[in-house]
Amino acid sequence: MSKEQEELKAINTLKRLAKRWPKTLWLFSGNGTLYVMRTGKNGERIQDACGLDRNSIVDTIDIPNDGGDW
Questions:
Q1: Is 58:47 a contact under the CB 8 Å cutoff?
Q2: According to the model, what pLDDT value does residue 15 have?
Q3: 8 in helix, strand or coil?
Q4: Do 65 and 32 form a contact (C-beta atoms < 8 A)?
């Protein structure tokens, strides 16, 4: 399998996951770490002044990322 085929396969896997991603979870990218976060009772993204509520962290995912805005 070529590099391009592997990349396309990975992208398609993420797209399939996005279709079934629970509404109770969201992703936060900060300082090069990708966090899986739990939403609040009303589905809101709970954030503190720094943008990350440590009590809402469920897990981290080791995928290179950048938390900056465009």
A1: no
A2: 98
A3: helix
A4: yes
